Amino acid sequence: MVRVINSEVSMLGVLVAMALTIILIFRRINPPYAMMAGALAGGIVGGLSLAATLDFMIGGAQLLTPAVLRILAAGVLVGVLIESGAANVIANTIVTKMGETRALLAITVSTLVLTAVGVFIAAAVITVAPIALMIAKRTKVSRLSVLIAVVCGARAGNVMSPNPNTIAAAESFSIPLTSVMFAGVGPAVVGAAFTYFIAKKINDKGSKVNKIREEKTDEMKQPSFLAAISGPLFAILMLSLQPLVDIKVDSLLALPAGGVFGAVVMRKTTDLNSYMSSGLQKMSGISILILATGTLAGIIVNSSLNRMIMSGLNTFDLPISSIAPLSGSFMALATASATSSAAISSNVFGEVLLENGVSALAGATMINAGAVAFDHLPHGPLFHISRDSFFMDMKERLKALPYETVIGVVIVIVSTIIYGGLL
């Protein structure tokens, strides 16, 4: 997918690029700088001149510019959902309707719905965490149990969301965003069900919630549930026009239009500018991360990695489609970022998958599932955001990792079973 300039990066260079990136992220260097440093070192160690290395890095970043524009546009919808109180209303309504007797299921579903309608996963965790802690105190379930329900419920929703990871996968394979979203429904539902099963099994493990910090909300300013959900529904309706009636409405238009529509329905147009500013601020960090991811992808895609993987598949007699879930999962384990891993894997392996008969939809869906499944590791932001949101010490937060990993594996397996043979 990236134009080869005049040389190829050796496998040693790829390994150095990935290893240095991971080490720097673990050392708490900002991920964009870690990825750029890894890409630069990998290119030079891999046999390129400095000029060729920079050309590859810039070419990779340029390739992801369309995805960055769509992610920035999505900031309008994100800002409206979070700042207007719509996200909080959606979560509260689901939990209230399902009742405390099904508390863990309600928490899982509420975070799934939030990410599925366009609230990025960290914001969904921050939004639902106070509600989950309040329910945990009343029902005497453990802090660990509600954390699993929130984080992994949000991850399941992320598989079928219009969030940056899905946008990056759809953009790389040049297919409608809604196609990848709808293809993720099966893995998401199974992932959410397994999340509830695990959370229920461990509801007595770990510390209990004895006190919580009450957050005051102005009920008079809260929108109704239908008004709160109107923006995401409008955006999804617009995105669905292409598969339904062959009218293409790009996510660059549909997602901000959904945000504006939601603000109008909630009668909050006077606050729209501040909502958009907030959304832009939230998405700017992700956009920078995507551009930096492109520099690393530019090095990897112009390496001998593809040939080595093809040789390995032939040796072990594995189907070519297995590249998609494995690459998404590996990059997620390396970067602990669903967006970065989806962008890198799609651009590095997309052409190989398509050339060998794997459909664009199957490739994008399996890569997205792998990318989403392992963004919970300690060198990523979600780990620390969730730890702070649930007031857990490091030791207790680390106890959740095995459960989160198993749930991620289930999501990847279900996606591979459904789409691994979709040629």
TrEMBL record:
GO terms for molecular function: gluconate transmembrane transporter activity. Keywords: Membrane, Transmembrane, Transmembrane helix. One of its GO terms (cellular component) is plasma membrane. The chain crosses the membrane at residues 9-27, 33-56, 68-91, 103-129, 180-199, 225-245, 283-301, 401-422. This is Gluconate:H+ symporter, GntP family. It comes from Thalassobacillus cyri.
